[in-house]
Design goal:
heterodimer; A: about 725 residues; alpha+beta; Aldehyde Oxidoreductase, domain 4; 3 domains; 21 helices; globular; B: about 150 residues; Ubiquitin-like (UB roll); DNA polymerase, domain 1; 2 domains; 5-stranded mixed sheet; 5 strands
């Protein structure tokens, strides 16, 4: 039975049955499930008490989907916003991504974009049914009635609340083609407060790591010190002697210590004696990898874009520029370390975790425990940060928990696997390390005539379930996005790709390919502007003719960011603009050097055009967030490997921007009636180049390598 | 047996005294508002008050709080000016670090009711936020201290 059929028959059977199948609501002490009698679709339930529950199929990881998606439905429903609450959806076909095919997933900055129509129509259909129920009751024509603020109003002052109409409305057919309302929006475009904020400030929001159950055990896993390593032999005698340690099992991920709490599990793990078979993984080191990448960048790759004939033009150029840019592996480092709860029974498997990738994770768990996917349920908790890490193509954190649950099956107790921060940072899945070589020459007016760009780095898609669908003619678009589709008018443009393979696991990381291509494109374009003796802002404007939305954000950021206005001595401004995920963003950064030679970022002004909008304050918050994320990558972030071992483990070795380093951030949203664009990721790409360009303006030092450390700045200043 | 006061209630726990207070709160007392982020006192997600001082519960052995008063995020009243300011400024994103941020902010304001930006820098720089809510945290602290919130972060 499909969920829709189920809901329908539940309604026919009365409210009681629906009560019995209430969905997980991840707020502790939440009010008991409402007496829901009207459930016209998978996304909405209205109770006799006028409560409106909106079911959200996207994972909440900071981006505000538990507010923005209910706003879309509530706008059309015309309900009382004060009565709206949210619930996380289960995994079911109704909740699959509206554009990505048959999987439930949160990613690609698509939540608002992909759900806009579906949720608007769901709200409109319910409104039409409530109006029809009222009209039937009053024996008037539905066109004489309207809905407003949770009440249907009819002729002669008649009115009835949604709750009172719910039972009758549920008996009516669901309209096939509901009409969206016309006129001014009541909710959309307003900075409504987030529905999940109260739970998040009083400790009641339940994240995966907070999940518990009677008899639950906690496990930690000793993982191989290098990627691809295997357990050769182990002795758990001393580990098992730790009070609280219950069992030690070998699983594919490593050796798991299962205990009655996290602390005894960790104490037990310290006493494990394991001999590892390290294999080829021990040979990986990032300096050697970098040399290999540099060598590859000097050879032709697979062509991702070819306009004109850049190599030929460059061969004849009187003056050519040739530079190398590089960025390191980066960890997502969400504040909540990865974890997963599994309660495995004979014919069922209940998973509770903060994931962005429910269908893929469910399939992986089902294969491991030997059940059908339909026998596996995933309850999505709050996510303590995602940034792509919790949409793992290898389903690593769910798979390892399923492996442990299977190995410990005889114990008949649910188990939660928790990663320490070090586990989280060292167990892989990073933004790839990239090495770019760019060659260019200018025309007589100083504008780019040819641009020949070679990109070297691992594909995040190769070897995954998505390889066949996403890699075309040897090109993983996520490796070249932001470069191969640059809007700049360059007559001879060639972009090539090398996708070397190595054992380091890689994954999408907030803004994916754009996180590196924008740094290269926007920095090197800045170099060319300066080489031509032109203003970097005007230079970009000139190259963006025919791209009004990109131009508009560029102009807005320049204006609001005081481009060209005087600055204190030692300060500099840099600008960058980039389109990604259907949105256009420009940023102006103002920086100086502190007395230790570190970059001090004073201010970042951001302009965004993301089309039609839902909640302006959420968009501002996401820009502030993305800029902070981009700054951490620009100033500090690097994962390095030596003898196959990741050298960073905690926030001392992998620092994040802290309060005292946070610049003033200003966000300007361009009014637009264009289709909605993404918001979660596109704020990241412009930050690193804007800061690098500002550093050049302030000091004359051009940094082509991230992160921009004091050491690199010092040697770049010396070079001149 | 270790006896201490949590949020105004006497609690007794029978655990090894070297167990970090954080795991006792989370796993024995079902107070999961205090979060695990690093286990090394580097991120502040586990911040609680011990006899009025903000401390990292992930590196505080529970044996050290014998006879002391511990306050966690669950013990800060819902109508506390800091919690109200957090809502008014719409600080939270993923929300994972916010209990620790709030505990640090409450302690700061108890010591310094109208902190300067420099006070905020030094009191709050031990609390990491990967979502980048720092500008709003700063505004919320100023607002809770009675100073009108400036626009645009700092």
């Amino acid at each position: 039975m499909s969920r829709r059929q189920f809901v329908k028959s539940s309604v026919l059977a009365g409210g009681g049955l629906l009560l019995a199948c209430h969905l997980p609501f991840y707020v502790r002490d939440a009010a008991a499930a409402v007496d829901a009698v009207f459930a016209p679709n998978a996304y909405l339930r209205i109770g006799t008490d006028d409560s409106v529950t909106i079911i959200v199929n996207k994972s909440e990881m900071g981006q505000g989907v538990y507010t923005s998606l209910p706003m879309l439905l509530a706008e059309e429903l015309c309900c009382d916003w004060k009565r709206v609450t949210f619930q996380a959806s289960p995994v079911a076909p109704e909740y699959n991504h509206a554009q990505f095919g048959p999987i439930m997933v949160t990613g690609g900055s698509t939540s608002v974009r992909s759900e806009w129509d579906r949720l608007s129509l769901a709200g409109a259909a319910a409104r039409e049914m409530l109006i029809a129920a009222a009209a039937q009751q009053w024996q008037v024509d539905p066109s004489a009635c309207r809905a407003e603020n949770g009440v249907v109003l009819g002729p002669g002052g008649k009115q009835s609340s949604f709750g009172k109409l719910a039972a009758n409305a549920s008996k009516l057919p669901v309209p096939k083609e509901p009409k969206l309302k016309s006129g001014a929006k009541k909710l959309l475009g307003k900075s409504l407060h987030r529905l999940d904020s109260p739970a998040k400030i009083n400790g009641k929001a339940v994240f995966g790591i907070d999940v518990t159950a009677p008899g639950m055990l906690t496990a930690v896993i000793a993982r191989p010190p290098v990627f691809g390593g295997k357990v050769s032999s182990f002795d758990a005698t001393r580990a098992l002697a730790v009070p609280g340690v219950k069992q030690v099992v070998v699983v594919e991920a490593g050796v798991a210590v299962i205990a009655d709490g996290y602390w005894p599990a960790v104490q037990g793990r310290k006493l494990l004696e394991i001999v590892w078979d390290e294999g080829e993984g021990a040979k990986v080191s990032t300096p050697a990898m970098r040399e290999e990448y540099a060598r590859l960048s000097a050879t032709p790759g697979v062509v991702a874009r070819k306009d004109g004939d850049a190599p030929a033009v460059l061969a004849k150029a009187a003056k050519r520029f040739e530079v190398e840019y590089e960025v390191p592996y980066l960890a997502h480092a969400p504040m909540e370390p990865l974890n997963c709860f599994v309660d495995l029974k004979k014919e069922s498997c209940r998973i509770r975790t903060g994931t962005q990738f429910q269908t893929v994770d469910r399939g992986a768990a089902a294969r491991i425990v030997g059940l059908n996917p339909e026998q596996v349920t995933i309850e999505t908790t709050f996510l303590g940060g995602g940034f792509g890490r919790r949409a793992c193509t290898g389903s690593d954190f769910v798979s390892e928990a399923a492996q442990v649950a299977k190995a410990a099956r005889v114990m008949k107790q649910p188990v939660k696997v928790i990663r320490s921060r070090e586990d989280d940072m060292r167990a892989g899945y990073y933004r790839p390390m990239w090495y770019d070589r760019v060659m260019a020459c200018l025309d007589a007016k100083g504008m780019p005539l040819a641009w020949h760009h070679r990109i070297v780095g691992q594909s995040i898609i190769a070897g995954t379930l998505f390889e066949q669908a996403m890699i075309k003619d040897g090109i993983d678009d996520t490796s070249v996005e932001g470069a191969a589709n640059t809007p700049y008018a360059i007559p001879n443009l060639q972009v090539e790709l090398h996708s070397p393979k190595n054992p380091v696991p890689v994954l999408w990381w907030r803004s994916v390919g754009h996180s590196h291509t924008a740094f290269v494109m926007e920095s090197f374009l800045d170099e060319l502007a300066h080489a031509a003796g032109k203003d970097p802002y005007q230079y970009r404007r000139k190259l963006l003719a025919g791209h009004p939305r990109t131009s508009k954000v560029l102009e807005t950021a320049a204006k609001k960011g005081d481009w060209g206005k005087p600055l204190p001595a030692g300060h500099g401004r840099g600008i960058a603009v980039h389109e990604s995920f259907g949105s256009f963003i420009a940023q102006v950064a103002e920086v100086s050097l502190d007395n230790r030679g570190n970059i001090k970022v004073h201010r970042i002004v951001c302009a965004i055009d993301c089309g039609r909008i839902v909640n302006p304050d959420t968009i501002k918050a996401q820009m502030e967030s993305a800029i902070t994320f981009g700054l951490t990558a620009a100033l500090y972030g690097a994962i390095t490997l030596k003898d196959g071992r990741v050298e960073q483990g905690n926030f001392d070795g992998y620092p994040l921007v802290r309060m005292q380093a946070m610049p003033k951030v200003e966000v300007h949203i361009i009014k637009s009636s264009e289709p909605p664009g993404g918001v979660g990721e596109p704020g990241v790409p412009p930050t690193a180049p804007a800061v690098a360009n500002a550093l050049f303006a302030a000091t004359g030092a051009r940094l082509r390598s991230l992160p921009m450390t004091a050491e690199k700045i010092k040697s770049a200043v010396k070079r001149g | 047996m270790i006896v201490f006061n949590v949020n105004g209630k006497e609690r007794r726990v029978d655990v090894s005294p070297d167990t970090p207070l954080l795991w006792v709160l989370r796993e024995k007392l079902e107070l999961t508002g205090s979060k695990f982020g690093c286990g090394e006192g580097l991120c502040g997600a586990c911040t609680v008050h011990i006899d009025g001082h903000p401390q990292r519960s992930c590196i505080t052995p529970v044996g050290d709080v014998q006879g002391k008063k511990v306050v966690t995020i669950e013990g800060v009243p819902e109508n506390h000016p800091v919690k109200k300011a957090w809502l008014a400024q719409e600080v939270s994103q993923c929300g994972y670090c916010q209990p620790g941020q709030i505990m640090s902010a409450v302690a700061l304001l108890e010591k310094k009711p109208q902190p300067t930006d420099a006070d905020i820098d030094s009191a709050m720089s031990g609390n990491l936020c990967r979502c980048g809510t720092y500008g709003r945290i700063r505004r919320a602290i100023h607002a809770a201290g009675g100073k009108p919130a400036a626009k645009g972060g700092k």
